[in-house]
Specification:
396 residues, alpha+beta, Butyryl-CoA Dehydrogenase, subunit A, domain 2, Butyryl-CoA Dehydrogenase, subunit A, domain 3, four-stranded antiparallel sheet
Length: 396
């Protein structure tokens, strides 16, 4: 499918200011360029190397690099500044997800690594990495999930112990389901230095460090994310690579990273509804004369997408104003992932019994959207969190 970006402002986008609307319009034009790359990356995720010149990939690469480190770019500074906000991040990823989520995630960018740097380090330490990421295209990773514990951060078993020679720290353990882990130049590893929640640390790790190894895991969908398994066998970590050492225990380690994870969930939700909208538009293009019942079901799905977009934007605006509501961030992510799956099921039904054979792009998207259930926290974990919140009558 080549497709074209839909004209006009999106329904449910009433919270956008002028510069974010400009970002929205810019991204809508850029996302169309992802469709040609989408199928190539599904066959070989490393094919992203041939598409780094795409404007959408470059915007995604530099949007979260601070202005003082960016090279000269073709994008207006106000567009880049808007993309760095939580609301702008959601707008960016919805539009690029409409083009293709795999291309969006495969391209080089600071990702959660950059978000953790900004949250836990000073300008001198973060500047070293941001300057490097701005100079040469590089993937990064954020390693939390473990084979035996999943994403239960408080139970992680990867350890950080003092080096016997007194020179830094030694990292041992294993992580799995890490995006771009086997293709990244640098990343963050969550590990345990002591007992309890305050015993968890975030450390920066170069991929070429002795004792570090990584492998790609087979994936049915969203192959551009290049999900990986990481192993650490007596990996030496310099003292300065333990992030947040200048902060109080209540603001570093896991405590400092949780707000970063909460901030990342609405953009993932936005990417999911971008995929859902793309699927609905594809059905409308392929079946312009749907029967009334099918047309009404498609319109209902579009209404639900618009309503979810409003919720995502509300969550982002709250974050941009310093109100971190983890339960609302979890709720929009769960809802958007569910809608994306429902949209593909509806599309497969409306396109006919052989739709996933006759429409390769549709079959790929059908597989891709199932990954959103696990991205940035599994649906079951988020549901448990929301249930506890509702029991306390604390959900706003």
């Amino acid at each position: 499918m080549t497709g074209s970006c839909r004209p006009g402002p999106l329904p449910g986008a009433g919270l956008l200011d002028d510069r974010t609307r400009e970002l929205d319009g810019c991204c809508r034009e850029l996302a169309a360029g992802f469709r040609d790359a989408a199928m190539a990356l599904d066959r070989d995720p490393d094919a992203i190397a041939g598409y780094l010149h795409l404007p959408g990939v470059r915007l995604n690469q530099f949007a979260h690099i601070p202005p003082e480190y960016r090279p000269e770019l073709d994008f207006p500074p106000r567009v880049l500044d808007a993309a760095a906000t939580s609301l702008g991040w959601a707008v960016l990823w919805e539009q690029l997800g409409y083009g293709d989520p795999g291309v969006t995630l495969a391209g080089p960018r600071p990702g959660l690594f950059g978000e953790v740097l900004s949250a836990l380090t000073g300008q001198r330490q973060s500047g070293h990495y941001f300057r490097r990421l701005a100079t040469a295209p590089s993937n990064t990773f954020f390693a939390l999930t473990e084979p035996g514990k999943g994403s239960a951060a408080a139970e992680l078993e990867t350890t950080l112990a003092p080096a016997t020679d007194g020179d830094g720290w030694i990292l041992n353990g294993e992580k799995c389901y890490v995006g771009n882990g086997a293709r990244a130049a640098v990343g963050v590893v969550m590990c345990r230095r002591g007992t309890g929640l305050f015993g968890i640390e975030a450390v920066a790790l170069e991929s070429g460090t002795p004792g570090f190894s990584a492998e790609l895991l087979p994936a049915m969908g969203l192959r551009g994310a290049r999900i990986s398994r990481l192993r650490f066998d007596n990996v030496r970590i310099p003292r300065e690579n333990v992030l947040g050492g200048q902060l109080a225990p209540t603001r570093r380690g896991l405590a400092g990273v949780l707000p970063v994870l909460n901030r990342s969930r609405p953009p993932v939700a936005a990417m999911a509804i971008g995929c859902a909208k793309a699927v609905c538009d594809y059905v409308a293009q392929q079946r312009p004369t749907l029967a009334k019942a099918g047309r009404l079901r498609l319109e209902d799905m579009l209404d639900r997408i618009d309503a979810t977009r409003r919720l995502i934007h509300r969550a982002c605006v709250a974050i941009d104003h310093g109100r971190m509501d983890s339960d609302r961030a979890a709720a929009v992510k769960v809802q958007a992932a569910h809608i994306a799956e429902e949209a593909t099921l509806l599309a497969a039904e409306l396109l006919g019994p052989a739709s996933l054979i006759e429409h390769p792009w549709m079959e790929k998207t059908y597989r891709d959207v199932r990954a959103f259930e696990f991205t940035e926290g599994t649906t079951n974990i988020h549901r448990l969190s929301l249930f506890r919140c509702l029991r306390k009558n604390a959900y706003p």
